[in-house]
Amino acid sequence: MFGPVFAFVVTGATWLAVELLNLLPTESLFGMVFLWNPLFGLALGFVGGGIGYALSLTAWGQWVVFARVWLPLTGRLPVAVTAFLDDAYRRGVLRRAGAVYQFRHARLQDHLTNTFTAGR
Fold first, then answer.
1. Which of 26, 41, 67, 115 could form a disulfide with 18 if both were Cys (CB 3.0 to 4.6 A apart)?
2. pLDDT grade for 24, boundaries at 50, 70 and 90
3. Quick check: 24 and 9 in contact, CB under 8 A?
4. Which residues contact 65 (CB under 8 A, 6 or more apart)?
5. What is the pLDDT, as a whole number, of residue 102?
6. Which has the closest alpha carbon to 89: 107, 75, 103?
């Protein structure tokens, strides 16, 4: 139920923003004249709501935001994750089990876990 409500709120807020932009005088900006209308506001709101829904309420979107954006920005994961995992596989630290990688040795995993929690 939260997804449609979220999209509706984003759509309404975008439509309101476009209506407020209509109050501004229409002047040339960088040689272009912008004509704001309610239909454009609704379309922009639906697109923004759809993107917001996809990034926040789906497993794929949360993975993209967390694993592909947040972790590399904070230095907790390399930017090239696939190359990193393939290198660890070639060195014998990881093994492939279907579509996932696993630590080859449980003691190494325990050591890395204890080192990480001790550093907090």
1. 41
2. low
3. no
4. 55, 56
5. 92
6. 103
What does the alpha-carbon distance between residue 65 and residue 47 come to, in Å, rounded to a whole number? Answer: 18
Q: Would you say 32 and 9 are in contact if contact means Cβ atoms under 8 Å apart?
A: no
Contact 95, 89 (CB under 8 A): yes
pLDDT tens digits along 50-87: 777 777 778 888 888 888 888 888 988 898 988 999 99
Contact, 17 vs 37, CB < 8 A?
no
Alpha carbons 83 and 77: distance in angstroms, whole number: 12
* Residue keyed to tokens 């239909």: 39
Burial 41-79 (b: 16+ CB within 10 A, else e): beebbbeebeebbeeeeeeeeeeeeeeeeeeeeeeeeee
The domain limits of the chain are: 1-74, 78-120
What pLDDT digit, counting tens, does each position of 32-54 carry?
555 666 676 677 777 877 777 77
Q: Which of 55, 52, 32 is nearest to 44 (CA)?
A: 52
